[in-house]
């Protein structure tokens, strides 16, 4: 390798942006012998043959008889276009894994890239080890082909069934952030990451290049991105393949990478160029790591990026349809390259000659349907060094349980319920801090620049924010930045989520904190992760991975200062639509419940856990022992806030879910009891939202009997909910007594409000709830308050108006309103009076 | 200006990344006289004074008495950090508007930048014109201050109440895409677009820089981005402010811009640098436009971008708290810069001296509380040239109705219902094509590389895809690319949506087409647009803008080939949570309904219209006249597919919503009638989803009587729904007879399925629906099929199994399955037999 010309910053010989011609590359050198080139040619052909076979064949897998339409699947599906470039990269990286005994995974970013990685997994032998029915013989190959994009089979992405995959790529844009997530705290790992030039146009991908500003070369591994300028998307050229060479080079230097170009379509020279370039990149990576590790000084080098420009559908026919249409090097090769093989003899003949050009007889049939053992041995790594078998991509295998302190040690003292104001979130931050301290290489906290704002700043005592950018003098004055930090903050929810997913998928633990409204930014990412988890449950060899924990705060009811744009609690609706096997939603009502729920979530596997909790100081309701019982049950009657024993049939159920909603509901109970001391009120609180749904729909769901034992068969239920009210209606659909349930929650209406005013407008404040209860209790022949509620209602309304007036006069201050409307004696007295 | 040194590509004198020091700028020159500098200083101070006043004061607006805490709002809210740089840019651009009579708008990207634009609008006089109560005197100023971030007042973003704003910026990331959307087809417009360095970290913003590849300098205006390296986000440094000068310069050259730096904190030299730089940029823009327009040759120049590096909280105190903490040039100046003015005498004194340093006595009090007329006249443009008064930012004013062909002319012929297969989408594409032809500067079609795949390719006959990248020879072979195109395709849903929003907000029309599953990518953008519309309804001077039309196709039921990752119909849940005043959801069951619905949506204003329709060939149900009636009603009984007259009480209601769901429901009716010819089945179809909800909740909702007249008081309802079933439960909550309604829809479970198998797994196929109906009709004492359903049920199950077997054997082919299970005679016969 010493002959290589490393002077990458020298002017390029050619600035052509054509994918055609002999190889043009930044790194010079011819590391391969003629014999080696021959072997790489064979391996390339074998893999390309498998890729076409997957797309077309359900029989005759070795083309031992002349191809005819009975051999084809009835409906042709799958994508060829990006396969050649991906295969080319994969197999050339294998050379370096063998040469340098590298620990590497392959992340396939381009859309529908599965034929590339499936064919490589099959050629490496991993596929048949994992799926013995797809054996390495003609019949096994037939099954391997037929199952692809076929009913009951496997998809056209690198789905969870794909050995070596931790990135499905169905939705594009997350390959780089997943890759970085996987290499954090994996100092010896290289994530070879193929980035499609289509994918590269997405926002999430475009900003994720900046991940290098958060990668510490001492403690983290490396990502080697290969931007594949494949030229086309489904039906359009790609932007990055159609800008000048100079712009492209500048772009990646601007992103902080040293770009190494490999461009052309001449296979032989491309072999040399790719081999030399990848080797140079690996040596660069090792040099940077060595420098940082030997000096102990973390720095941010210009990490290498390979820019591979090759024709889409490379090695396929350049033109089809009697020379009228471009195929290779055009978007027509994106999906099924020859679409009409069933009916068009030209297509059939062209496909046959094309497939035969990959020499299946010599490469497969001559060895009983498998690649020769010699070729495999010489070109592929062995065992877990195969990228298709690297345990990192089945991260559950590597998972180590978190070391957890006892969350009870962080309990808030609650002598009298609903009397003391404490910051539940700030308190929970101490638990997080100690978890981070106990797990210095196995847990990270993620968030888009909101960790401090979300009152989690306590974690900085033990874990700074990772920062590999420049430092200024003022950073020492509360900046909490360090190259060896553990908190990951970038103003991109996409990147934070992608990092966390990559970190979890490779077997580590973490938590994302975000403002509630802007978590919608990553709706689709969370959807995709849910789908990955759901599908993984069906894949026997996949081990459970740590749950994706999402902590939502800066909640809708306290977004008065940010206003209407920051008011959207609807992420729960998105999550609730996902498979019940993988989603969990918790709304802890107070600080001790938040501790209990967080502990539970961080210990769990294979879920997406969503925790919703406000970050401001709040009244505390339950002592720790009661909080644990309540969170374990997920839903229950709170005797301390009920005016009748749980066994008694109440006049009214006051239910709540969410910390602020609970506080208002309890205050409403208090107001009602002021006016009607003998009213039998049952207080029900929900922590685990899926308790509301039938146990037939979700494993956490209550049975009908359990549900009715809480919500009664016929009594009015006033349910104060954190989010949009319809979610409760949807979850309780089919339950008894829903016709008597009124759900109050957030509805869209823009204004700059005090928290109180916002609640009043939505009917979720204590006064509105109490008035609603009076109205319901005054209805019908059996209405227990019939004719008695008028004066109380009027007093409540006046008090509500008085509070509104105060807020409008003096501005927005929830603490002021809270302390003013919630007499501190009430909780204690009441608790003693009603406790059963 | 001729003295300016235009050699921007020359080496910079300094590569410092500090925001401090005398101005360092790419463009040299001192275009301002000493007197002018003095005026800009005054104007800068006046605006900064107003910004602080908004944050702090509820009285004593001119500091005519010594500042004390009674003058403060009780709760201090608002953000100062980005205001100085934004104000600086705004006022220096005003000079060029006046000098060159420019048509310009200002887009404020940084978070919470409202004080900057509000203060400028006030100084330009626009604010008091629009809101006379905020008059230009002491009392008006007091109101102007107090209302900011105050209950009942205005928010801290550039909300719809802000004159001159078409970009709120509550959620970050869309300033550049909004700006480009606004200048498309606005050849004389310049969108001066301030981009925050926090915002710049988001994915959507990072990729939106590439918008220049879609901007035609002949027919479009220009965006002048000013990247504001303000240095800090809420609590972190920003990436772009902490990379090397060279990287930053490369990044923007790579994005295709010529970067012009203006860096420093020395106000006087910064005035000169900013004035010279902005002027150079304007002249560059005009030169490029002139070159393209005079030659008729569109090209993509290196458009200018200004990189303004100034300290956060610029002109504030550098240190506070007895010199212990940095304020200016640090994240502490992000929000309320001095937080403890109520209690901390140091803060109070510091604030007073700081505010007085802006000379309110001289600049305001001396003129009766207003800026001097002379200063305004010399520095501000007049009338609509003021950026705060530009009608483009109140685009409804400029809105011209679309020229629409008669959609009836595109009707699909339906002689016999449910007999002919046609591509509803491909047919609708002809309507779209002709709309594009009739509105060559007023309508654009947007989509992320899926327009052709979505069967809308017909539009290319009259409107190519905009492409300003390089061209290759193969592009002439079906590329459909042109600089003067009208179809906007980039593989970024965020950018497409942002462009469309900008285009609509400035008063033009458009439609976004997308795969259904990946529309979740822009959940949060659509949320924000809904909120903008909702709030705009309350702003009397805002004119209605054309609706945001979103066409969703490649729907969940036909995502067999792409698999599980592409199966998510839940966008409707997100939309349904938004304000009923602004959201509409349509699921046209066939081609004529799709035409009618599309026509309706494109003519509407101030809505977000979501249309869900599959792109594959489908059975056609309604002739055009019936389709119009059906779509106008939005929901109704289909007598042709019912076996009893509408006035008759049926045994069973078979309801459906969505094209594929409707087809299966009709087929189930057919199967049921095969087995039970005398069964009284009512067929109900829903086009307008909000018909299901109560009219008290949504203006389209049915009254109880209307609802019951369709869904009966007590008969079984089998509802086949396009999306997740719970959405129907949520919408029909509280309706009569919901306990007898079974909703079938999509549920998450990953597999590679035929469409039939997917439907079977969800119970949405014809067989499952028919069996479900038999089960329901066999229940209870009044079950009309009690004891009679067994044999039919068994036959249906066997037929279902036979179809499953075929699919598994031969692969995935919906058309095959469809034509096989839907006898062509059935529709006709049946229609004649049952038509009433």
Structural summary, described in words:
The structure is a homodimer of 836-residue chains. By secondary structure, chain A is an alpha/beta fold. Chain A has three domains: 29-394, 3-Layer(aba) Sandwich (Rossmann fold), CATH 3.40.50.970; 407-612, Rossmann fold (3-Layer(aba) Sandwich), CATH 3.40.50; 635-834, 3-Layer(aba) Sandwich (Rossmann fold), CATH 3.40.50. Chain A is built from 26 helices and 23 strands. A six-stranded mixed beta sheet of chain A has the order 1-5-6-4-3-2, with helices on both faces. Chain A has a six-stranded parallel beta sheet with strand order 13-10-14-15-17-16, sandwiched between helices. In chain A, β22 (717-721), α21 (726-731) and β23 (741-744) form a beta-alpha-beta unit. In chain A, α13 packs parallel to α17. Mean pLDDT of chain A is 93; it is low at 1-12, 820-824 and 826-836. At the A-B interface, α7, α8, β8, α14 and α15 of A face α7, α8, β8, α14 and α15 of B.
């Amino acid at each position: 390798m010493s002959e290589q010309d490393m002077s990458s910053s020298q002017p390029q010989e050619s600035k052509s942006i054509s994918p055609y011609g002999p190889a043009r590359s930044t790194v010079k050198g011819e590391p391969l012998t003629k014999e080696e080139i021959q072997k790489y040619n064979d391996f390339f052909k074998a893999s390309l043959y498998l890729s076409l076979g997957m797309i077309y064949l359900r029989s005759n897998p070795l083309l031992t008889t002349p191809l005819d339409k009975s051999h084809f699947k009835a409906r042709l599906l799958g994508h060829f276009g990006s396969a050649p470039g991906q295969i080319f990269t994969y197999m050339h990286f294998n050379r370096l894994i063998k040469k340098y005994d590298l620990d590497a995974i392959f992340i396939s970013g381009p859309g529908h890239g599965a034929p590339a990685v499936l064919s490589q997994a099959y050629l490496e032998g991993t596929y048949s080890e994992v799926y013995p029915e797809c054996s390495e013989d003609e019949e096994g190959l037939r099954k391997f082909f037929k199952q692809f994009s076929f009913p009951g089979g496997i998809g056209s992405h690198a789905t969870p069934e794909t050995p070596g995959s931790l990135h499905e790529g169905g939705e594009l844009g997350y390959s780089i952030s997943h890759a970085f997530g996987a290499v954090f705290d994996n100092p010896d790992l290289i994530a070879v990451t193929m980035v499609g030039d289509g994918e590269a146009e997405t926002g999430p991908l475009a900003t994720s290049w900046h991940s290098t500003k958060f990668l510490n070369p001492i403690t983290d591994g490396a990502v080697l991105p290969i931007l594949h300028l494949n030229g086309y998307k489904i039906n359009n050229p790609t932007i990055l393949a159609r800008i000048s060479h100079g712009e492209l080079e500048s772009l990646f230097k601007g992103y902080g990478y040293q770009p190494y170009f490999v461009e052309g379509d001449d296979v032989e020279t491309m072999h040399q160029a790719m081999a030399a370039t990848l080797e140079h990149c690996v040596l660069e990576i090792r040099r940077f790591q060595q420098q940082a590790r030997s000096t102990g000084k973390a720095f941010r080098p210009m990490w290498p990026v390979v820019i591979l420009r090759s024709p889409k559908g490379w090695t396929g026919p350049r033109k089809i349809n009697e020379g009228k249409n471009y195929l290779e090097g055009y978007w027509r090769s994106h999906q099924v390259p020859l679409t009409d093989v069933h009916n068009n003899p030209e297509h059939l003949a062209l496909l046959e000659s094309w497939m035969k050009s990959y020499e299946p007889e010599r490469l497969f049939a001559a060895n009983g349907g498998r690649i020769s053992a010699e070729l495999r041995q010489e070109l592929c790594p062995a065992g877990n060094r195969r990228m298709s078998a690297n345990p990192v991509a089945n991260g559950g295998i590597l998972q180590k349980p978190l070391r957890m302190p006892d969350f009870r040690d962080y309990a808030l003292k609650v002598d009298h319920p609903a009397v003391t104001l404490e910051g539940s979130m700030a308190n929970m931050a101490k638990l997080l801090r100690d978890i981070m301290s106990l797990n210095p290489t196995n847990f990270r906290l993620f968030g888009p620049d909101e960790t401090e704002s979300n009152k989690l700043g306590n974690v900085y005592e033990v874990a700074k924010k990772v920062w590999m950018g420049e430092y200024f003098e003022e950073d020492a004055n509360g900046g909490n930045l360090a190259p060896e930090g553990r908190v990951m903050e970038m103003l991109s929810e996409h990147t934070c989520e992608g990092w966390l997913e990559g970190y979890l998928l490779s077997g580590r633990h973490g938590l994302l904190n975000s403002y509630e409204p802007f978590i919608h930014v990553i709706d689709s990412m969370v959807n995709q992760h849910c789908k990955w988890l759901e599908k993984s449950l069906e894949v026997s060899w996949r081990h459970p991975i740590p749950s994706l924990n999402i902590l939502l705060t800066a909640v809708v009811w306290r977004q008065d200062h940010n206003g209407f744009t920051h008011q959207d609690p609807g992420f729960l609706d998105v999550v609730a639509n996902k498979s019940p096997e993988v989603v969990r939603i918790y709304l802890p009502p107070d600080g001790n419940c938040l501790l209990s729920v967080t502990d539970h979530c961080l210990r769990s596997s294979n879920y997406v856990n969503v925790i919703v909790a406000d970050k401001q100081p709040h009244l505390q309701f339950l002592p720790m022992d009661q909080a644990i019982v309540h969170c374990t049950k997920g839903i229950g009657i709170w005797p301390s806030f009920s005016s009748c024993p749980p066994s008694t049939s109440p006049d009214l159920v006051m239910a709540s879910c969410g910390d602020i909603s609970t506080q208002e509901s309890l205050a409403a109970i208090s107001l009602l009891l002021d006016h009607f001391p003998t009213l039998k009120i049952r207080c029900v609180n929900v922590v685990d939202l899926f308790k509301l749904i039938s146990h037939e729909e979700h494993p956490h769901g209550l049975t009908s009997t359990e549900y009715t034992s809480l919500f009664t068969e016929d009594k009015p239920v006033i349910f104060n909910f954190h989010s949009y009210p319809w979610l409760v209606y949807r979850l309780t659909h089919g339950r008894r007594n829903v016709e008597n349930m009124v759900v109050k929650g957030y509805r869209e209406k823009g204004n700059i409000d005090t928290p109180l005013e916002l609640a009043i407008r939505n009917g979720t404040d204590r006064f509105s709830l109490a008035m609603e209860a009076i109205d319901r209790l005054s209805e019908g022949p059996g209405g227990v308050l019939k004719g008695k509620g008028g004066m109380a209602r009027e007093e409540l309304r006046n008090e509500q108006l008085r509070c509104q007036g105060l807020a409008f006069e003096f501005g927005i201050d929830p603490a002021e309103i809270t302390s003013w409307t919630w007499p501190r004696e009430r909780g204690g007295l009441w608790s003693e009076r009603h406790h059963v």
